[in-house]
Here is the input.
Amino acid sequence: MSMATTDAAASASLAGSDPDLFRLIQSESHRQDTTLEMIASENHVSPAVLAAVGSCLTNKYCEGYPGKRYYSGCGIYDQVETLAIERAKQMFGCRFANVQPHSGANANMAAFIALLEPGDTFLSVVLCDGGHLTHGSLANISGKWFKPVHYPLIYDRSHPRFGRIDYDAVARLAREHKPKLIICGYSAYPRTIDFPRFRQIADEVGATLVADIAHIAGLVVGGAHPSPFPHAQIVTTTTHKTLRGPRGGLILTNDEQLAAKIDKAVFPGCQGGPLMHVIAGKAAAFGEALKPEFRAYVHQIVANAKALAEALTQRGYDLASGGTDNHLMLVDLRRTHPNLSGKDGAAWLEEAGIIANKNTVNNDTRSPIVTSGIRLGTPALTTRGLKQPQMVQVAGLIDQVLRSEGDKTKLQNVRKEVESLCRQFPLHG
Ligand SMILES: *Cc1c(COP(=O)(O)O)cnc(C)c1O
Here is the structure.
């Protein structure tokens, strides 16, 4: 399948002109073929998306927007970008879309520029509770230039809503701090987001609600998670996670005035020329997401996540919030494996061919570099065609790895089983 990950003709030419680079890309293709990708934010794009991103559209400067460019020769690009915009609007059933953000981080930065002045207050979840760097981390411009106030999850294990957003605390903090903006949407939150509740709180204090659906965008499009529309005034997302497109960002709204502010905030606010080859890749992915097969795909992602969560729970593992409603789960290692960090757990899993990431858990006593948790997601495995029975098998493999004490022979044995599973479910097979 290595040829399916790059355009065959382009590969042949790269093989001749730059064998060193060609070999590296081939090695990566082999790695993707032969390992189980369980990083919740990753996926495998289609050959159509790869072809668009690898096309000659990378050659052109198109500063501006369709019909309003600064350079000549943009006619076809206007059509490509318009196609992506129209498909984005159709996917989410909204009125305006900006497809130019280079990434999810840029989409969020543009939302901040559109809505806030430096020093303004906003509400969000802190990184170590499952938020994102761009939601007010002090290492990020969102935390340096603006004033984040973080709302909590319910940390009490005996509470029936343990591990979920504490909506009463969101309301209390909103009344207390009068934020201009409230962000909902997270990087490591396994539960459904109550968008109407957030909007109610935002309206009460005159804040704008931004839903950052970077992780769940595909689930929203395919009907496996409630839509942030009409509740959120601005929706930001990535295009490369559950949406299964090229790496990039996207901003959506129903509000014409906000749409104009967003367009200015993206260009010239924080970006120069758009990545037109990536916008073409977005158009391709959005076209795929509008097909009925995509609905089936995202519902299978969630069914797989539930099956994996159930199988891990049966093996005694603790999951943050006790399970999942979406595509991801957080394994809390503290009770079952008190001496094992998320860092070592993820390293052992990688040796066994299972790619996942360490993650902080509620009130983690280990540092964000070490952590006591592992985040697992099912979008990429579902793209390969794995279903519930394989999730039970994968839970068994993960369990073997985490109990292995890092023993090389045990890890190699799991690796063999992983490779056989990968052969059974080839990428683009
Ligand atoms: C992944 C993610 C982003 C950022 O996406 P990049 O493309 O990596 O910049 C923003 N917000 C959330 C909630 C995310 O999970």
User: Anything to note?
Assistant: Residues 41, 103-105, 108, 132, 134, 185-187, 212, 214-215, 238, 249 surround pyridoxal-5'-phosphate (CB under 6 Å).
